[in-house]
Specification:
InterPro entries: HotDog_dom_sf, MC_hydratase, MCH/BMMD. Pfam families: MC_hydratase. It comes from Microbulbifer okhotskensis. GO terms for molecular function: lyase activity. The chain is an alpha+beta fold and 172 residues long. It has a single domain, classed as Roll (Thiol Ester Dehydrase, Chain A), CATH 3.10.129.10. It contains five helices and seven strands, in the order βββααααββββα. Strand 1 and strand 2 form a beta hairpin. The radius of gyration is 19 Å and the shape is elongated. The chain starts with 7 loop residues before the first strand and ends with a helix.
Amino acid sequence: MKESFYFLKAVADNVFIERIGIDFEDFEVGQVFEHRPGRTFTEASCLDYAFHSFDLTPFVTDQVYARRVYGDRVRVLETFILSAMAHTTKTFGKVVANLEMSECKILPVYVGDTLYFESEILSKRASKSRPEQGILSVYSRAKNQHSECVCAYKRTLLVYRKNCGPYAAAGY
């Protein structure tokens, strides 16, 4: 395994700095990253998300109504599922910008489901206009506890190169 993939960087005996993200150069086409831990959607977390996002539709905020309409399985908001994809942040922490998101699909997710996230590197190339950055094409997906893919999309990311951007000055 490449040294840059380790979670911590030793700076002295028994002194470590937490690393966030992987440098552009260390990504390779075909790599698959599992973003752990998974995320379990509880009724409380769904209600909290709904109130914070100002989505006050009855099927989200009134669980009695939701159960009457949908039965025992209460659905999770699609925007909450997408926001949970932030589990990719530790791997893609050196992203300058999300340039594009395409081919998005989201299937129903229900309260009690646990999602596990992974991303595959589809392509990479140096940026022609930004020498300190590179461009990655990534396919990210979320699978539930039954290994069913319930969310997937392609993204194009602008990523800092090694020893460039704010990370070099910060020491990681």
